[in-house]
Each structure stands twice: as structure tokens, then as C-alpha cells.
């Protein structure tokens, strides 16, 4: 893996309001499965009506996930199935940071494509990793490097419980290399205006509804390829 920053997998928090740390600030500050609603077979993309269904509210067992504000999402980042010739195994995840897409290989030269946010300049990386573990409404713990940069994160040094305001969101795929956690994740974001932008410190974000779709299809051990940017 070719990384540009040893702390690239961390998210930069920023205080807002009365001094609390907002979910949006963690990722942007510095710089129920959808099964039947999945449009994986819709080669022409989805209409706004369809998008409102796919990106509508989700009654998750732990927290009710709100609908995506589609006014803040470029339609080119709607989930869809695309032509994508590849020799990689079905299920392989390919991140294209240059074009802000994540692909899941489906076989027969097809892939499910999701819009994504990626690392901002100076925090991008490339190489092969794999999903070492998965988490639903995971606890987020800022690394010591982040706390050194932004002391306001210190109050979460022992972990921030999962929830709608947690930076990792509803679902998280933790990326490993050679048995070691890289500090990078693929995570769920509730901020559609972050999709199509470089805003994180090396992690990759999908809209929550897309992340649930990818998470449910992804097993521990799945290969993940980060393309050069």
C-alpha cells in the first residue's frame, strides 16, 4: 500500500456550536437492507422517483436512518449497475478516488457503482488491502495522532458510542493489510454534499443507504483495491 500520511485513516474533527464535535465536522471540517429497492439491474441509472425510494428513510433496528436530501446529491452518483470489465473475483471492491466512485464486482463484466467521498489532497493512498472486520453502529475512537492535532477529540479517547452522530455511521468496513489495521475504513455518511469530493483523511464514505447495500454483500476477507488518484 502506498500511503502519503501515516495518519491518513483518521478523521479531522472540528468543534461547532457550544464546543461539541459534529459528525459532519469529523469528516469535512478540515479541508434494514434495501433488498427489493436495490436497482442493481438498472443499467440506465435511476429516475428521481426511484432514487427517492432507494435513498428514503430506513427503519434500522437500532436507529431510524433519515432519507437522503437528494437536492444535495449529483444524480451521477446514484447507485447503478455499469459495464466494468475486470478479472477480479465477484465481490471485490475497487475504489476510484479520481472519479469518486466505489465499485463492487458482480461478474460478467458488470459492477455495482456507488458515489463516494475520498481522502483530500495529501491524505490519499493506493494499493491492495482487505476487509479485516465489519461493524454496525461501531464505536469510534480517535487515534492519538488526531488528539495531538485536535485536543477537542480527547473526550472521545475511550470511544464514542455508535449512533447517528458517530463519524463511522451505521456500517463500517475496516481495511487491513498483512494482518494489521491500516486506520482506513469504508464508512457510512449522512452528508450527500460530501459525495464527489475529497474531504476525509484517507477513508472512503458512501451514503448510508449505499453503505448498507455494500456492507450486506461484503464478507470479511474481501479484497479491496484503492486505485491511484
TrEMBL record:
MF terms (GO), sorted A to Z: glycosyltransferase activity; peptidoglycan L,D-transpeptidase activity
Record domain L,D-TPase catalytic: where: 91-227
Pathways involved: Cell wall biogenesis; peptidoglycan biosynthesis
GO cellular component, one term: extracellular region
Database matches in InterPro entries: LD-transpeptidase, LD_TPept_cat_dom, TAT_signal, Transpep_catalytic_dom
GO biological process entries: cell wall organization; peptidoglycan-protein cross-linking; regulation of cell shape
Keywords: Cell shape, Cell wall biogenesis/degradation, Glycosyltransferase, Hydrolase, Lipoprotein, Peptidoglycan synthesis, Transferase
Family: Belongs to the YkuD family.
Protein name listed in UniProt: Lipoprotein-anchoring transpeptidase ErfK/SrfK
Organism the protein comes from: Kaistia hirudinis
Amino acid at each position: 500500500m502506498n500511503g502519503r500520511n501515516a495518519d491518513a485513516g483518521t478523521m479531522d474533527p472540528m468543534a461547532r456550536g457550544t464546543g461539541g464535535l459534529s459528525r459532519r465536522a469529523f469528516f469535512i471540517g478540515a479541508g434494514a437492507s434495501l433488498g427489493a429497492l436495490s436497482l442493481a439491474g438498472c443499467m440506465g441509472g435511476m429516475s428521481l422517483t426511484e432514487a427517492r425510494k432507494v435513498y428514503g428513510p430506513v427503519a434500522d433496528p437500532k436507529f431510524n436512518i433519515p432519507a437522503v436530501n437528494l437536492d444535495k446529491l449529483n444524480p451521477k452518483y446514484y447507485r447503478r449497475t455499469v459495464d466494468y470489465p475486470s478479472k477480479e473475483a465477484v465481490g471485490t471492491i475497487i475504489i476510484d478516488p479520481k472519479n469518486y466512485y466505489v465499485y463492487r464486482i458482480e461478474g460478467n463484466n458488470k459492477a455495482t457503482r456507488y458515489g463516494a467521498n475520498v481522502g483530500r489532497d495529501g491524505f490519499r493512498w493506493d494499493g491492495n488491502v482487505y476487509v479485516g472486520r465489519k461493524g454496525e453502529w461501531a464505536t469510534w475512537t480517535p487515534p492519538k495522532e488526531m488528539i495531538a492535532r485536535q485536543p477537542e477529540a480527547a473526550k472521545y479517547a475511550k470511544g464514542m458510542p455508535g449512533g447517528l452522530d458517530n463519524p463511522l455511521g451505521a456500517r463500517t468496513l475496516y481495511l487491513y493489510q498483512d494482518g494489521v489495521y491500516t486506520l482506513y475504513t469504508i464508512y457510512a455518511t449522512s452528508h450527500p454534499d460530501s459525495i464527489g469530493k475529497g474531504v476525509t483523511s484517507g477513508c472512503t464514505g458512501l451514503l448510508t443507504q449505499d453503505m448498507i447495500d455494500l456492507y450486506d454483500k461484503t464478507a470479511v476477507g474481501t479484497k479491496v483495491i484503492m486505485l491511484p488518484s
